[in-house]
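The instructor's notes for this session suggest beginning with a concrete chain rather than abstract definitions. Hand out the sequence below and ask the class to guess, before any prediction is shown, which regions might be ordered.
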Amino acid sequence: MDRLDYLARIQRGFQIHPVVVLLGPRQAGKTTLARAYVARIDGFRAERNYFDLEDPTDLGRLEAPKLALERLEGIVVVDEVQRSPDLFPLLRTLVDRPHNPARFLILGSASRDLIRQSSETLAGRVSFIEIHPFSGVEVGVKNLDRLWIRGGLPPAYLLESDQAASMWRESYVRTFLERDVPSLGIDVPANALRRLWLMLTHYHGQVINLSEIARSIGVSYKTIDRYIDILAGTFMVRRLAPWYENIGKRQVKRPKVYFRDSGILHQFLGVETRDQLEVHPRLGASWEGFALEEVIRLHGATAEEAFFWAVHEQMELDLLLVRGGKRLGFEFKYADAPKLTCGLIGARDHLGLDQLTVVRPGRGDAPLDEGITVVGLETLLSERRA
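After discussion, reveal the predicted structure:
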């Protein structure tokens, strides 16, 4: 999905509901998209109808929120809504007015799980759209290495050098820990959350062992679980849920964890350039997570549609997408020519996959077995871009 696709989705959202919520990590481009949409649809009201809740002036305008919002018409934008979750009940009152003259475009840097309690009052009135950083489809396959190394957050991707991108990411992480997390009303020591985040580099692409992490840090496993929930709810990591199948085998039932942005992973690994990554022991894991995110986004899958599957010490499938009545399996291999394995055959047969794709770097495709194909990531993305 590219930025024009997002604008079209916002338009479709407003055709159904009076409120559209854009959710995504900070600096993913939500504000830019909102301004572009408003300029296209309702440009003459853009500044009067725009409220940035990180701006003291705009916060002052909302000291009496009902008086400030009830007289507005057209598209009203509220940016960084997680800072004032008490606005949601008022929004319900406003959109339920007879002949309501306003529609509300709400931007937030926390997932719907973190703002669920506040947004429950808008049930049946709101469309959620998750805004991602840049993808391979957007930047083009010729820039895929740059995207992998720097990550997709626009400021990091667009800077003039890998070193400058690294400096920007370090500032981003520090701001996230010291300002963004507290702004959500979450009382967690910044150094404790950073230490966990660093430890998760060792679990990237692996099943989470909460007790092991808890022993290393010296807190309870419930505390670790809560910290990971914070990172997942703010789009920093992905908890990939396990899939269960009634096959009479001992299946893995704990989730995996992935950094959602490869640039943030590399920041914690101390990697700035492709040359450094090539000799790093986490090279394969880094590429697997990068490719997994690209494939999930390529198929427009939600977190509720994405899984992994594994049988203890026997078979494993990196990604299972269950959507549209189909089961699509993906295995990610940082290799020139992946081979057919018993694990791939077992995953195909036990899960009844409609399709099993082994994704590798580069271009090209080749069949491995019935229903199993090797495809280069560049080929997958190029086909979607076309």
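Then share the key points. The chain has a mean pLDDT of 91. The chain has two domains: 3-130, 137-385.
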